[in-house]
Amino acid sequence: ERWVGRSAPRYSIDPALVMAVIQAESGFNLTALSSKNAQGLMQLIPATAQRFGVKDIWNPEENIRGGTAYLHWLLRHFSGKVEWALAAYNAGERTVEQYQGVPPYRETQNYVKRILAAYPKTSHPIPPPLAGNTSLSKSPS
Asked: For 124-139, b where at least 16 C-beta lie within 10 A, e where not — what string?
């Protein structure tokens, strides 16, 4: 909670949303590793970690900062639509753009439902841009 308490305000993200994502992603397991190489508390894949400036993916504070930065980007990109941001966190933003919403993948649909059970808000205030940090506004290459 302390690490989330540091990152969430920095990125203008509701800490309860970050906690719900961590619960769904890793169950608060610091050493969680998925079959798709998603790592740590917020289950960042190496490309996402690099995109958001995470140097040590296994450092829990950096992992939370990177995941929160990604949520910031997603909520800005999807105009505060929590379901779309969560679906993109799970399945990728291009997939959500393609389907114009939560894709018809059972895993992603269950993931979104699981988080919304803990965080029942479907909209989030659109976070303001981060001052002086253009690298966090880039789309993936």
From this structure: beebeebeeeeebeee
Active site residues: 25
Q: How confident is the model over 63-92, as pLDDT tens digits? A: 999 999 999 999 999 999 999 999 999 999
Structure tokens at 37: 């190489």
The phi, psi pair for 81, rounded to 5°, reads -75, 105
φ, ψ for residue 64 (rounded to 5)? Answer: -65, -40
Asked if 42 contacts 64 with a C-beta cutoff of 8 angstroms, the reply is yes
For 105, residues 6+ apart whose C-beta sits below 8 A from its C-beta are 91, 95
Give CA–CA dist 35/67, Å, rounded: 18
pLDDT in tens, 92-137: 999 999 999 999 999 999 999 999 999 999 999 999 998 765 444 4
CA distances from 107 to 66, 90, 117 (A): 23, 9, 15
d(CA 66, CA 73): 11
Q: Model's pTM, two decimal places? A: 0.92
CA triple 1-126-141, angle to 5 deg: 90
